[in-house]
TrEMBL record:
The keyword Membrane does not apply. Belongs to the UDP-glycosyltransferase family. It comes from Cucurbita moschata (Winter crookneck squash). CDD domains: GT1_Gtf-like (cd03784). InterPro entries: Glyco_transf_N (IPR058980), UDP_glucos_trans (IPR002213). The gene is LOC111445126. Residues 9-40 form the Glycosyltransferase N-terminal domain. Transmembrane segments: none annotated. PANTHER family: GLUCOSYL/GLUCURONOSYL TRANSFERASES (PTHR11926), UDP-GLYCOSYLTRANSFERASE 83A1-LIKE (PTHR11926:SF1412). Keywords: Transferase. One of its GO terms (molecular function) is quercetin 7-O-glucosyltransferase activity. SUPFAM superfamilies: UDP-Glycosyltransferase/glycogen phosphorylase (SSF53756). This is UDP-glycosyltransferase 83A1-like.
Length: 457
């Protein structure tokens, strides 16, 4: 395939907050090197980005980043959490639009397209790019192990681990030395099996089969991972380009941030605050919401709890909340690095895990869906910088369990020391002329500019 020389990079996230933000950061980093970027989202995501940035949009994006939106086939007010809608209907609706738009951009938009950087879950777009002579890279917002498993379905089938339909032949620990995946990975950790319903698992597996075909066109798989977190997996998979950690950017937020939180944190003792954030998709029932509130009150520690706008749950009777602050959305990176914050209670989305370990904080892990459970295993079993919660028979984490685990982590000085050491190792991945992540980002810049097609270090 003859790769076309051009000046513009097209960036295509999967339509979800945890996928948009890191790709926006990568886009702004490339733009600072003089590369023109067009990020294409669904109209639903595009409208949220514009609303969150408001009148500061031009200042936040800079001169080299433009945003476009494509209709996903559903009204803007309609919920998009349904798994069939997200992974089948919206993808089907977008495909002909991308075929038309990319072909047009490649002929008359600033000299054509230099390359496409595409979220793994939108990997099928690289088939379109390849047909136009446009080279591509895949962005993967997961652990290296999770990413490799997503891209190794044929090997999993040939190794007798799963059937061609994605069902495990038996429930067991996965041993794939050729991929370098850690031995703790179980068949229950396979990416498409981390949702509860069998029908949903089948939809996810079929989606991965679909995107894997496009992913094979990728020069690189870009990860927001510092290589020190998964050195074995990275070393055995040379197409993995580690450029982490990334710092969240205001341009990629889908909700406006609550600035009052920093003023509140300034008034709290050093290391005293439990910061609680469960991501953009976690949905507690009323009973669990009440147990969290009462459990934190029992700890008698200051806490900051991110509760999304639109949440209909009511705080329980008797909840005083005198030591707590509930906010709708914050600059998580600023909060995690504030000296008053001492513990991070997290759903273990990969972006949050990277931000937390980079800040040197111990974790209380509350995984919800998807890759959260595998991410928790890294935090608790490999890096040993956090613990999880035990659930009651009805699946609820009780207030007493919350109190117990907060006190346990708060008093574990060895865990705090491990967290600080890990953060220092991560810092060295980016800082300095010979830092691996900085060198890899420079390779990405040269590749996007058509100056260098070398492989990652």
């Amino acid at each position: 395939m003859a790769e076309k020389k051009g000046g513009r990079v097209v960036v295509i996230p999967f339509p979800a907050q945890g996928h948009v933000n890191p790709l926006m950061h990568i886009s702004k980093g490339l733009a600072k090197q003089g590369i023109k970027i067009t990020m294409i989202n669904t109209d639903f995501i595009h409208s949220k980005l514009l609303e969150a940035m408001g009148q500061n949009m031009d200042q936040i994006l800079g001169p080299n980043v433009e945003l476009l939106g494509l209709p996903d086939g559903f009204p803007l007010h309609e919920n998009r959490d349904d798994i069939h809608k997200l992974f089948v209907d919206i993808m089907d609706n977008l495909k002909p639009q991308f075929e038309k738009l990319l072909a047009k951009m490649n002929t008359d938009h600033d000299g054509g397209l230099a390359c496409a950087i595409v979220d793994m879950s939108m990997g099928w777009v690289l088939e379109i790019a390849a047909s136009l002579g446009v080279k591509g890279a895949i962005f993967t917002p997961f652990t290296a192990a999770h990413s490799v498993l997503n891209l190794s379905l044929n090997e999993l089938i040939e190794s007798g681990i799963i059937t061609p339909e994605g069902t495990p032949v038996e429930e067991k620990t996965i041993e794939l030395e050729s991929l370098g995946t850690p031995s703790m990975i179980h068949t229950s950790d396979l990416p498409w099996r981390c949702v509860p319903l069998k029908n949903s698992q089948k939809i996810l597996f079929d989606h991965l089969v679909r995107v894997q075909r496009g992913c094979h066109y990728a020069k690189w798989y870009i990860l927001i991972l510092p290589h020190v977190l998964e050195p074995q997996v990275v070393s055995l998979n040379p197409k993995l380009l580690t450029i982490g950690p990334l710092i969240a950017t205001e341009a990629g937020q889908l909700w406006k941030e609550d600035d009052s939180c920093i003023r509140w944190l300034d008034q709290q003792p050093a290391g005293s605050v439990v910061y609680m954030a469960f991501g953009s998709s976690t949905d507690f029932n009323q009973e669990q919401f009440e147990e969290i509130a009462m459990g934190m009150e029992l700890t008698e520690r200051p806490f900051m709890w991110v509760v999304r706008q639109g949440t209909e749950h009511q705080l329980p009777a008797g909840f005083k909340g005198g030591k707590g602050k509930i906010v709708s959305w914050v600059s998580q990176q600023k909060v995690l690095n504030h000296p008053s914050v001492g513990i991070f209670m997290s759903h273990c989305g990969w972006n949050s895990v990277i931000e937390g370990v980079s800040s040197g904080l111990p974790f209380l892990c509350w995984p919800y869906v998807g890759d959260h459970f595998l991410n928790m295993k890294y935090v608790t079993e490999i890096w040993k910088v956090g613990i999880g919660f035990e659930r009651e028979v009805n699946g609820v984490v009780s207030r007493w369990e919350i109190k117990k685990k907060v006190e346990l982590v708060g008093g574990d000085e060895e865990m705090k020391d491990r967290s600080r050491v890990l953060a220092e190792e991560i810092r060295r991945c980016w800082e300095g002329a010979d830092a691996p992540s900085a060198l890899n980002f420079d390779r990405l810049v040269k590749w996007a500019k058509q100056e260098d097609d070398d492989v990652a270090v």
